[in-house]
Design a protein that fits this description.
alpha+beta; 2 domains; eight-stranded antiparallel β-barrel; two-stranded antiparallel sheet; 42% strand; globular
Length: 190
Amino acid sequence: MNAKRLSVPVLIALFLVFVVGCATEATREHVKLKSAHLSGKLYEYAPEIDTPNMAVTGGCDCCSGNILFIDGTRFVWADYCESTTSFAKGRYEITNDSLLIFRYDDSTVVKEYNWQRETDTNAMPEYFISRQAPVPASDSMVAFLFHGQIFLKFASRTYYCTVDTTRSPSSLITEMKQEGSWDKLMGQNN
């Protein structure tokens, strides 16, 4: 008797999870992506969609970042970890109306925390900035509308991307210029 009582609430809960999951998928609509949707904008990526705030979120190390769409063909990619930030740049193109393809240039810039500062707070510099080979050579995303807002989904993994409402494109560029990673990435300072 107790097993039957327990199983009914469990079945109802599973049914609700299934219905809500299907409803979320059903609210995604096709969007004809144009470079105007991206150009000059800063997008943020993470593994989950925060539906009430229409943002992306992820509470894990190395699972979020930004994509700065400089213009109609060029981008800068920032991948954040607790002690390291990697920056890559390259070109992107839109194909088949909603597929976004990224092609990375031949190097990335890595900003890495100076771990010596954990035992010597005066150790300098605070971060090392160096050029490294990129990984991967290309990536792709598919665009869709979700409650009227453009989102991008990585083709290779379950990560989502949408306009970053917490910072501006110029704030990312200013930060990168101040630390020296912008010039290194753009090939102005090897």
